[in-house]
Amino acid sequence: MKPGEASQTAEFNALFRAMESARHPRRKRLFEDPLAPYFLGARARKFLRLSRVPLLGHLVPYYIDRKWPGVRPSSLGRTCWIDEQLGDSLRNGAKQVVILGAGYDCRAYRIPGINQTRVFELDHPSTLAAKKDHLTRKLGKLPEHVTYVPIDFDLQDITTELKLAGFDQAALTFFIWEGVMHYLTAEAVDATLRAISALTIPGSRLVFTYVHRGLIDGTVHFGKLGDVPSTLQDVGETWKFGLYPEKLARYLAERGFSLVVDVNSLEYRAMYMGPSGRHMKGFEFYHAAVAEVRKGAA
Ligand SMILES: C[S@@+](CC[C@H](N)C(=O)[O-])C[C@H]1O[C@@H](n2cnc3c(N)ncnc32)[C@H](O)[C@@H]1O
């Protein structure tokens, strides 16, 4: 990330969610995230406005998907998938939700029943400050069920920060780590996973996304990346970390988790977008997974 600036990749995701939330006809929308437009800067707002123009608006997602293949549908598909995992977790008794690298994720404000839990949103201080600012302007005040925790995962330990913020170590908790892991060092990912399994009770779950390590080390070719690498370079948010799917269960077990499920972006796109999701190209290296804290993990 650029020093002192809010994350731009967080804004890209908010743009995709805002566009989806304005899609016509309404029945075709995968979800609605009414707050997403309020996090957008001038350029992203222009994209959103254009996408709402009758008849021609569909050219905006077409343009985005040509230039950055797979990014937008992958982001939308994983939003649906993670929403579903979160909903299941709340129905199964989760009392706390921790969103690591929350960016402009608005699940704390839009998922039914989540306001009955305590939500912790963790992010880099500059992104978190921008989010709080936009939310305060839109909502008048910040919701009481959400606690905002500024942190740099590469430099700080989540245990200390969460404890200081009032995290209940005895409560069943659902952790979300979406679109963040690949920006961190291997040491930070390792430390964060170990901290989660030590900090909470068995049965607590973590949903996270990761990129196939073959993309990072160049050992696997995944088709067209378009302008994705140059855009990430421009915004100062390049990918550093990945995992091999075939080694994921073992990697997690060594850190106190059992792997529940691992899906790649072709699979979760197909789940929500049907045949068109299956034919979308790009981002095949992107995965989403759920892991559960094992007994005796701490
Ligand atoms: C691609 S965005 C994802 C945001 C959100 N989770 C979503 O899916 O829309 C990456 C997020 O990770 C945060 N991030 C990146 N590196 C970080 C670090 N070292 N410490 C804390 N947050 C970080 C950024 O501020 C940003 O909000």
Put the structure in a nutshell.
By secondary structure, the protein is an alpha/beta fold. It has helices at residues 8-21, 42-51, 59-67, 71-91, 107-110, 125-139, 158-164, 186-199, 213-217, 228-234, 248-253, 265-279; strands at 96-100, 118-123, 146-150, 173-177, 205-211, 257-264, 286-293.
Describe this structure in words.
There is one protein chain. This protein has 298 residues and is an alpha/beta fold. The chain has a single domain (69-293), classed as Rossmann fold, CATH 3.40.50. 43% of the residues lie in helices and 15% in strands. It has twelve helices and seven strands. It has helices at residues 8-21, 42-51, 59-67, 71-91, 107-110, 125-139, 158-164, 186-199, 213-217, 228-234, 248-253, 265-279; strands at 96-100, 118-123, 146-150, 173-177, 205-211, 257-264, 286-293. A seven-stranded mixed beta sheet has the order 3-2-1-4-5-7-6. Helix 1 (8-21) packs across helix 4 (71-91) and helix 4 (71-91) packs across helix 12 (265-279). The radius of gyration is 18 Å and the shape is globular. The relative contact order is 0.15. The model has no long low-confidence stretch (mean pLDDT 95). The structure holds S-adenosylmethionine. S-adenosylmethionine is lined by residues 1, 7, 9-10, 13, 101-103, 105, 123-124, 127, 151-154, 178-180, 183-184.
